[in-house]
Amino acid sequence: MATALSEEELDNEDYYSLLNVRREASSEELKAAYRRLCMLYHPDKHRDPELKSQAERLFNLVHQAYEVLSDPQTRAIYDIYGKRGLEMEGWEVVERRRTPAEIREEFERLQREREERRLQQRTNPKGTISVGVDATDLFDRYDEEYEDVSGSGFPQIEINKMHISQSIEVKHITSPHSAWAQVNEAQHQSSWNLEFGAGDLQGPLLGLKLFRNLTPRCFVTTNCALQFSSRGIRPGLTTVLARNLDKNTVGYLQWRWGIQSAMNTSIVRDTKTSHFTVALQLGIPHSFALISYQHKFQDDDQTRVKGSLKAGFFGTVVEYGAERKISRHSVLGAAVSIGVPQGVSLKVKLNRASQTYFFPIHLTDQLLPSAVFYATVGPLVIYFAMHRLIIKPYLRAQKEKELEKQRESTASDILQKKQEAEAAVRLMQESVRRIIEAEESRMGLIIVNAWYGKFVNDRSKKSEKVKVIDVTVPLQCLVKDSKLILTEASKAGLPGFYDPCVGEEKNLRVLYQFRGVLHQVMVPDSEALRIPKQCEWLPLCVAFLVHRKVVGDFSACGMTVTFPLGSQGLVWSPRKQDGLCHRCS
C-alpha cells in the first residue's frame, strides 16, 4: 500500500545502509566497510574519464558517510536526528567531549528555542459546535398514548438545542525545562485561554482560563466565566489543582462555584494501551461517583473502545462506545448512553483538526431494548458501509494524489539516484567478475538474479504495475567468503540501489546458487538478510566430517557429530545457532 513520505525520508542519506553496517557497528566494522568501498570507488583505479568522474563522486559520498559515523559526536547527532540534525545551527558551541545523552539534551534545547519563538506567534484557535437532536418519536410513538394522536403516521425528528463556542490560547514561556503535567507535555510555564460561546437556551458565555505550573510535578488551572441569560449575568469560577503521582497518573482536586457549584476529586491513569478514570463529586444539584475505562488498540487507525458507569442523586448511567481515526486529521466516535431516568441516547462526535462537532441524539425516555439495539448496531452498520464505499476509496485516492505530487517534486532527485546507481554498477563490473571467479572455484555463493522494488503477488491487484530494478551486480559485489549479509535498513541506500517506487512497499527477491543448488529468498525492504542459510551448510558439514571421520562437538556451526570407533555410522543433530565451524567457514 502506498504511504506518504516526509521530507526527511526523501532528503536524508542512510549512511549505515550505504556502508552496509549495523547501527551498532564498532569503529573496526566501520573502517573495514569504508576501506572496501574505497577500493571499489577509488578514482585512480579507473582510466575512463567518465567512470573516473563517477567514481570520484561516489568516493566522496562514502568518505562523507565515514566521517560522520567515525566521529562519536556527529554520529550521536545523526543517530538521533538524521542528516538534517547536522545542518542545524548552534553545534559549533557544543563541547566535543559530551556524551550522546548530553548531545541529545543540547539538540532539544536548540529545538525548544525555535519552538518557543514559533509558539509565541500562535493563538491555537479551537472551536466546538454542538447540535442536540430529539428523536424520541422514533420509539415512543409506539406507546398506547400515541395511538389516538392524529397525524402521527411519520415520526418527527427535530433539533432541540444548539451551542457554538470558540477559544484562543496564548502561551507564555518563561522556563524551557518546565513540563505541562497534564496530557500534552508541552514546554509551557503559563498560558491563558479566552473562550466565547453562544447557545439557544443558556445564552452567550464568556470565559477566561489561566494555567500555571507551581512545581515540575504540580500545576493549577483557573477558569472564570460569565453566563449571560434572561435572568441576568451569572458568574462562575472553577479552580483545578493537579499533581503527577507517577509517570502515567495524575490526581485532580476541583472546586466550582457559581454555575452548578461542586467539589470534585479524580485520579486519571493514562498509558500507551489504556486510560482509566475514577472520580467523586459532591455538589448542587448533582453528586455522583464515576468510573471509566478506555482501551487503546495499537493499530494505524488508533481505535479506542471505552465504557463508563456513573451513579448519583440523578440516577445511574451506563455508557459505552468507540472512536477511530478516519483520516489524517479526523477522528470519528460514537457512544451509547443508557440511564435511569434519562433513557437512551446516542452521542456522535467528529474531531476535525482543531474543530469538534458533537451531536447528542436522544432516542427515548424509557429503557427500550429496541432503542439500545438500534443505537448500538445502527452506527456500526453505517460506519462500515461508509468506510467501505466512501472513506476508503477517498483515502486511497488522496494517498495516490499525494504520492503523485511527491513523485513529481522528487523526480529530479530520483533521476539523480538512478544515475548514481547505474554508475556504481558500471564501477563494480570488474570486481564482480573476480568475485564470481573466486566463488565458482570453491562452489560458493553465486547471485543468479536479484530484483528490488514492488512485487504484485495478490491476484486482486493485477491492475497494479510491478516496479522492480535488477540488483544482481550490486549484491554479488557484497558477497564475501561465500556469505552475503545485509543489515536491518532500507536497501535503497546500498551501493548500486535506488528507490524505484517512492512511498510504496518494497521487497528484495534473490535467486542464488550455493554448492551447485539453486535457492530463492524474498525479504521486506527493511529486514536483515543472511545467505546462505544455516540449513544449506549442513550437508557440506556432514560430508566433510564423514570423510575426515571427525569426532566432536561443533557448537559454533550448530551441530553435534559423533563418529564411534570401529563403526561406519554417523550421528549428528543440528542446533538452532548461527555460524559455521572453522572447517566449513
UniProtKB/TrEMBL annotation:
Highest taxon of source: Eukaryota
Keyword Magnesium included in the entry's annotation: no
Subcellular location: Mitochondrion outer membrane
GO cellular component: MICOS complex; nuclear speck; SAM complex
Sorted UniProt keywords: Acetylation, Chaperone, Coiled coil, Membrane, Mitochondrion, Mitochondrion outer membrane, Phosphoprotein
Similarity-based family: Belongs to the DNAJC11 family.
Alphabetical list of PANTHER family matching this protein: DNAJ HOMOLOG SUBFAMILY C MEMBER 11
Name of the molecule in the record: DnaJ homolog subfamily C member 11
Organism phylogeny: Eukaryota, Metazoa, Chordata, Craniata, Vertebrata
Gene that this polypeptide is encoded by: Dnajc11
